[in-house]
Amino acid sequence: MDAYHRNICDAPSLSSSMARTIVNECPAFLHANSYLNPNFTPEPKEHFEFGTAAHLMFMEPDQLAERLEIINAPDWRKKDAQEARAVARTNGKVPMLIGQMAELEAMRAALFAHSIASKAFVGGQAEMSAFVRDGNIWLKARPDYLRPESLVDYKTSTTANPKEFARRAFALGYYQQAAWYLDVLKAATGEVRSDFWFVTQAKVAPYLVTVTRFDDDAIEAGRTLNRKAIEAFKRCVDTGDWPGYRAPETPGQDTAFILTLPTFAQREVDQLIAA
């Protein structure tokens, strides 16, 4: 997994999250916060480690003993627990408190009690990487679970409410992620999968689960934005220039931006004026 996030190809490689960073931020931000920057060292984040542990428990339980380090402490506040966590990370393991493991067991029970989600991680392959050449770069994808007819992505969240997930999915570019994985897998293997499903689970009791996917229009929009990100990445690789925020119509030069009020703010202003 760590190797996937580094560059193991013979040319620069672009992942879904990197493409989304180009679209939602800028090339300079991507360069500074990825393997492209030789001085970049990712900081371990507890919520990512919890998600990794959940992935292992639900999709690769045979790897739990090898990849997890269970720390017998109630929390991370004491020095002994912090030192044990640091040692686990140094050894390439995911540190989990014993209480967190109990939470994960309860989440697993809730997920497999869901009549649809319980079938999502059966009969397929977990964490398979795919790579395909695109001109002077590589495109890469690593879906959580690869089924014969679909791809499945598991996400933990503060809520599994589908309305809230829809808002977050747009903000985080998950429609781009779905299009990216479907397209890269097709290009790399020749296999066509019809759907990309999100299984979202709340991290608080009763650990509710929802299963969702984007419609065809959203996937096509994500595909278009992905292509823009790919071409921008290629230009950066070719020129060695990783620009900051620039206007789409003048990508070759810095820009002074003219701001307009967001729609919701304009409505509020109009109401204030009319009052």
TrEMBL record:
<dbReference type="InterPro" id="IPR011604">
    <property type="entry name" value="PDDEXK-like_dom_sf"/>
</dbReference>
<feature type="domain" description="Putative exodeoxyribonuclease 8 PDDEXK-like">
    <location>
        <begin position="24"/>
        <end position="245"/>
    </location>
</feature>
<dbReference type="Pfam" id="PF12684">
    <property type="entry name" value="DUF3799"/>
</dbReference>
<protein>
    <recommendedName>
        <fullName>Putative exodeoxyribonuclease 8 PDDEXK-like domain-containing protein</fullName>
    </recommendedName>
</protein>
<dbReference type="InterPro" id="IPR024432">
    <property type="entry name" value="Put_RecE_PDDEXK-like_dom"/>
</dbReference>
